[in-house]
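The protein record now logged underneath.
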Amino acid sequence: MPTEQLPPVVLALTASDHGYQDPSTGKFFILGTISVINAPDFPCSLQTFCVYAALTDGRGQTQVKFRLVDVDEVRAPLIDADASVLFPDPITVAEILFVIGGLTFPEPGEYRLQLLSSGGEILCERRLLANQVQPPGLSPAGEPPDAPT
């Protein structure tokens, strides 16, 4: 009887503005990490949104899933993407970079970036806050401040 494959261990799960893997060295670069999104209006669209993950203690070909959901999961996920990771041996550290264009947050609030096993178990979860903020130079009513007299 085959034994059930244990899920990998998550070493890192990071959201950022940009991510890049150098083709000559294989190194990953994460630029502009994100834990809070401040926007004057919602829905709020981000030109690019990257998710970086580092995993270890996997065995063979392993399926994982990235999701970005509102905290109460009342809407469909903003991101729902599958990835396949190859672990030649359990000590391998496998890195994944997802680059998503045009991600839209429908409203301010709390969101969760999740990395799940193929069986749906949450391996790691990060909180992302989307805040509606007043643009610089505007009064709370949204009008330019009065000029000094």
About this structure: The radius of gyration is 19 Å. The CA atoms of residues 46 and 101 lie 7 Å apart. Strands lie at 9-21, 28-34, 36-39, 44-56, 60-70, 79-87, 94-105, 109-117, 122-132.
